Input
Amino acid sequence: MAQVADFNIANASGAAVRSDLNAVFEAIKTCNSGGSDPTNPEAFMFYADTADNNNLKIRNSANNGFTTIGSVNSANLGLLPVAGGTMTGQLLGDDSSGSGSPAYAFDSDTDTGMFRNGANTIGFSTAGTERAVINSDGFTIRARGDVRFGDSDSSNYVALQSPATVSSNVTFTLPGADGSSGQFIKTDGSGNLSFATVSTFSGDASALTGTSLASNVVSTSITSLGTLSSLAVSGTSTLPTVNSTTVTATNVNSTTAKATTLKTNATNRVATAFQNSSGTEIGRLANTYVNFNGSGTVAINDDLNVSSITDNGTGAYTINFTTAMADVNYSVGLAWNIQSVNNRSCGTDNSNYTTSGFKVTIEDVTQNYASGTSRQDCSRISVAVFGNT
Output
């Protein structure tokens, strides 16, 4: 170890010059090693500080201080090699960096990496945009980014994503244990999730409220549904007895179905059909009817889908539909009051049988039809039409 006051070789005797040279060479050979800074340092001078863990130092270009390189007693002077190596202590990054130039990035992708978003917050960016942050609140994905779970070969995935707009923060807490087969996950309204079993009814369900019943409900023990303003069934539901003001259903299989009104799901006037357990149609409701007085001035007593009745003279009437029939293949049922003075029959006139209406005549069977005197007015005539409109 050696240091010299300066590296100048002064004029002197041979022995003195030789002594100066030996001292300078010794200082160079030992990198100016010593327990304190060299007396007259120069810029870029090396200095091995034996009082500071034998660290090798170099004088800065301004010649106003030494910069530590590393300990000569450590491999690679204690510095991390280009490949491999083990680090001790903290790795400090630039805390003023942002998503566009993250402190920890990649040489060929400098806008992708990790940076300090704020106090106690780490940000992650790709393509210069912050995608997620980690802080004391947890892990937050920005701007509706997906959480994706790939399949076994990562060709497809299942993703979770937030709504486009959230009015306030929502946290869902998962159940602490698995549920049973067939259960579903429900919330208590405060974000706490749990497994629950679908409720079933047994016996009198008169306390059932609301306007709809879920599809594919099967029960052999419901004896009453109380009074519902509407019972909407999608799919097939088996109900032994349904007492309701209005029943709206695609399929209702029931031993007894009691209702003031049955509604079809069709948007047009398709007559409601009845099927047996095999799905074969066994009946259909009339979608048009009328009860009218045909004596004197024709007057409608009650009707459905009849706009008017045209009086064509004695015993002849035309029934006019409000909504036309789909075709002329509809069926007509007729009834009239029986009076003691005449034997009467009622029928339709095939020459006036269209999708918009048809003609009805009342005949006295004791009279000669060909003479034109057989037709008789009737005070009560009932007509029912079966078909689709």
Summary: Residues 14-78 form one domain.
